[in-house]
UniProtKB/TrEMBL annotation:
<dbReference type="InterPro" id="IPR036766">
    <property type="entry name" value="Fe_traffick_prot_YggX_sf"/>
</dbReference>
<comment type="similarity">
    <text>Belongs to the Fe(2+)-trafficking protein family.</text>
</comment>
<protein>
    <recommendedName>
        <fullName>Probable Fe(2+)-trafficking protein</fullName>
    </recommendedName>
</protein>
<comment type="function">
    <text>Could be a mediator in iron transactions between iron acquisition and iron-requiring processes, such as synthesis and/or repair of Fe-S clusters in biosynthetic enzymes.</text>
</comment>
<comment type="subunit">
    <text>Monomer.</text>
</comment>
<keyword id="KW-0408">Iron</keyword>
<dbReference type="Pfam" id="PF04362">
    <property type="entry name" value="Iron_traffic"/>
</dbReference>
<dbReference type="InterPro" id="IPR007457">
    <property type="entry name" value="Fe_traffick_prot_YggX"/>
</dbReference>
């Protein structure tokens, strides 16, 4: 059964995540405010960040950096700046 939420990233009603994917209060906020579609957008950005910056998700500093970028992307309207990455022309 899918659930509909108001996605603060897309600014519209959209299908919510099936379960909380991230721990703690931030995870609750993502679960309640971020849609599957928005989360997928973040996942692809996160993959690019990990590859570009050669991050190790086992490293607490790298995880902290990813979390900061995730909050900026999902909740503050900042696109992820990746050195040497040029978005495809629309």
């Amino acid at each position: 059964m899918s659930r509909t939420i108001f996605c603060t990233f897309l600014q519209q009603d959209a299908e919510g995540l099936d379960f909380q994917l991230y721990p703690g209060e931030l995870g609750k906020r993502i679960f309640n405010e971020i849609s599957k579609a928005a989360w997928q957008q973040w996942m692809s950005k996160q993959t690019m960040l990990i590859n570009e910056k050669k991050l190790n998700t086992m490293n607490p500093d790298d995880r902290k950096l990813l979390e900061q970028e995730m909050v900026k992307f999902l909740f503050e309207g900042h696109d992820i700046q990746i050195d040497g990455y040029t978005p495809p022309e629309q």
